[in-house]
TrEMBL record:
Domain ABC transporter: 4-239
UniProt source species: Streptomyces spinoverrucosus
Transmembrane segments: none
Protein name: Sugar ABC transporter ATP-binding protein
Superkingdom of origin organism: Bacteria
Length: 245
């Protein structure tokens, strides 16, 4: 089934080729781990996908529709949700207000507070969040704020979810809980791009791995009947330590 298919994505900044003909395909219901050292092009790829940068060349296909370039609005409308390390939730607003921010109006009129809170409660349940629709987001722990942002993505019917090093600011227990959420979302059919430095996370979550180096695909490995451990070793050429945190 079509999820995300990136073909030949190329982007330069001045003389620097941040991306040079990158291909990346993620079917619905799969987690694609994206690895690469600093400067490899991971953020540039994500920003092209989110419409923050126009690519110089290549196509981005989401849900069967192919785009040469996307505006941020088109990216969201196409079903792409990106959870950056710096979250975009607004601390001063409640959970429900955050989830509905920018989508308070439908063609039937404004959604009232009660209805927003009801829908928000359902979405929070779907991501097993431990907060309530009326909580102020600024008072929540990072892990809950992150779940609110994912719930917001689900409220917009996202089909492609991009997580940029989502466990970087989480405790071990929180990271473990997030991994369970990612597994749930995969089961619910989302196509997930999971940017990480941690091979333990690749081993736990990935169905397929792409390693970027200097803007190119240095390694690409599908599961193809291997264990995740074997997959990780196929991309690293042998046992490799995770980046210490
Ligand atoms: P990663 O996220 O994998 O660390 P980036 O996509 O941030 O890599 O960077 C890839 C390359 O593009 C690097 O050489 C970086 O310096 C360059 N780059 C990224 N964004 C910009 C920008 N806005 N202006 C100029 N150079 C950039
Ligand atoms: Mg970086
Ligand atoms: Mg980056």
């Amino acid at each position: 089934a079509p999820g995300l298919s990136i073909r030949g994505l190329t982007k330069s900044f001045g003389g620097v080729r941040a991306l040079d003909g990158v291909d990346l395909t993620v079917p619905m219901g799969q987690v694609h781990a994206l690895l690469g050292h600093n400067g490899a092009g991971k953020s540039t790829l994500i920003k092209c996908l989110g419409g923050a940068y126009p690519p110089d060349a290549g196509t981005i296909e989401v849900g069967g529709v192919s785009y040469a370039r996307l505006s941020p609005r088109e990216s969201i409308a196409a079903g792409v949700a990106i959870i950056f390390q710096t979250l975009s939730v607004v601390d001063a607003l409640t959970v429900a207000e955050n989830i509905f921010l920018g989508q308070e109006w439908t063609r039937y009129g404004r959604i009232d507070r009660r209805a927003q809170e009801e829908v928000a409660a359902g979405l929070l349940e779907r991501v097993a969040a431990k907060c309530s629709p009326r909580d102020r987001v600024g008072e929540l722990p990072m892990a809950q704020r992150q779940l609110v942002e994912i719930a917001k993505a689900l409220s917009r019917s996202a089909s492609v979810l991009v997580l940029d090093e989502p466990t970087a600011a989480l405790s071990g227990t929180e990271a473990d809980a997030l991994a369970e959420r990612v597994e749930d979302l995969r089961t619910q059919g989302l196509a997930i791009v999971y940017v990480t430095h941690l091979l333990s996370e690749v081993e736990r979550l990935a169905d397929e791995v792409t390693v970027l180096r200097d803007g190119r695909v240095a390694h690409h490995a599908p599961m193809a009947g291997r264990t995740r451990r074997e997959l990780v070793e196929s991309i690293t050429g042998g046992p490799l330590e995770s980046t210490p945190r």
